[in-house]
Give the backbone structure.
Amino acid sequence: MRPLILVTNDDGINAPGIRALIEVAKEIGDILVVAPDKPQSGMGHAITINSTLRINPTNVTEVDHKEFSCSGTPVDCVKLAIGRLLDRKPDICISGINHGSNSSINVIYSGTMSAAVEGCIEGIPSVGFSLCDYALEANFEASKIIAKKIILNLLEKGLPNGVCLNVNIPKLPFDAIQGIKVCRQANAIWEEEFDERKDPYGRNYYWLTGVFKNLDGGEDTDEMALKNGFVSVVPIEIDFTAHHAIDEIKKWQL
Amino acid sequence: MRPLILVTNDDGINAPGIRALIEVAKEIGDILVVAPDKPQSGMGHAITINSTLRINPTNVTEVDHKEFSCSGTPVDCVKLAIGRLLDRKPDICISGINHGSNSSINVIYSGTMSAAVEGCIEGIPSVGFSLCDYALEANFEASKIIAKKIILNLLEKGLPNGVCLNVNIPKLPFDAIQGIKVCRQANAIWEEEFDERKDPYGRNYYWLTGVFKNLDGGEDTDEMALKNGFVSVVPIEIDFTAHHAIDEIKKWQL
């Protein structure tokens, strides 16, 4: 039996990145696509609890796979797929290919990765793919080869409980990519800068912008791998407990 | 000099929970409140990048502290406070008191906790407080005593880099609370159920609902602490790397 693959993303169901990932997934298994009906970048692990959700079939003409657009967040898409649209649990859940990096601290803000984390919470081996190129017309040819390789490994080997994968691919032609490195999340931050403007009524409003700063000098980080032309693969934990800090905080006067 | 305390939440600036936390914080230090202008529960670590942000002063009559409502998410509130409203980094960042539990897996979906995580990313000792009572008219008297004790410890002892605290308080009168336990995040999930309805035009829509399931039999979890009448304190990590899984995944054929 062909594996059942759930496909989602955060750039929306019509983004070139998810179309590339669908092409790869169709070569490997039966697929269900449930993806946002509009861009949902930066939505993190948001879920829709104060309003309603809608799902609509989008490819009524294609017979070999099903696609639904969803009015909610990437995490809503995974929940709806599993809770409502699928008769059985998918074998794997894949998210992306994101237009832009989700390396280091970006994993926390990323809708793409939150969808993979949600798949992982549901007990499904899950991976998020991102290409380090924000352009709509980004070239996904190298990413497709990388994604296929990782998906085949994921299907064969699975993942430890509570762990999913954050895969970032450098903006390079396939021949220039140096390899694939399993690494850790770099310690990096966004230094926020708010662009202040005035609306036509004279009131202030703001756009969130920022400058990315890698604070991590380590050789074993995703940022370093990408900088050196490697694909980075970071295993991500859904147990957020800082186990190493428990004894320290037990010393508090509580 | 009195410490500078940044206060936020996800239930919105007018929620009784944040009013209770403001009362506590004012006894301890100078405060800046930046909180969402509407409920933002379940927003996780979402940030606003596809639309604009507004901030408005809300207590123009009170002289002893400043409050601003923000059109964005809890994480936006923290970013705006630090990037735009404050001249210096706050000494601590406190979020809540949330109306409802953020224990175990809820930490991932929680706007309250994501605000604390964002404070932590910015290098500020941060804590999120939640009372296990979803009611608007919840009684925060015991929570205020607990919050004060933890805030005073936080100011005195600080936290390790990259670690913040997730504090959950059982719905009990203060005298019935058994103590404060430092613990780990329980392995628990929400089993989704989607409530399907028809709109006046005959089209389907869905409400996300679910049943909480604790899959963790451990004695050292937040769920167990709360069940036994203790306050749970879980240190939360912003390095999401599953370090223990790196060697396993290095064995893949990549």
In short: The radius of gyration of chain A is 19 Å. The mean pLDDT of chain A is 95.
